[in-house]
Amino acid sequence: LENSNSDVISLHDEIAFINDYIEMEQLRFEDDTQFQYQIHLPKNFNPKNWLIPPMILQPLVENAIKHGILSTKKQGRIDLYIREKDTQTIEIRLENPSTKSRKKLNPGMGIGIKLVQDRLSLLTELHPNLFGTSFTSGLEGNDKFVVRMEIVKFSQAQGSHTLSNLLKNIS
After folding, report:
1. How many CB atoms lie within 10 A of CB 134?
2. Which tens digits make up the pLDDT trace of 136-158?
């Protein structure tokens, strides 16, 4: 929760928070629902070098558990893929199981995703020289729900709120 007051945190810290959150949820549903998760990072990728808005992944993981894992009758799985598309852009992709009747089972679906979209838009608007984002979500095939997010960090030449200055301020 201490990170939620910051505009940005390191991706490393967000991943650590997500690991703790998922482990807590697995304990919570231990007897009722079994699920696995994996965070996929390329070997030479350093998440400490990237800043993202805090608590941006948690609502997506919570949605994956609530609307994906709990709505399927079989053992579920959540996969979080994080990769550098280039030196300025990371792609975050979250995949979880889905059912064709997912919306019927969970009429509240979409609130967490909308909150993340709104938060990304607001932070991009508040810090136009810091980063840009794109966000998509939807069914892929008949059995997978996918959320994709790209975060582009801007160079120092584009503004005074540079990533390196912010890193110094939050360290």
Report:
1. 13
2. 888 888 778 899 999 888 754 33
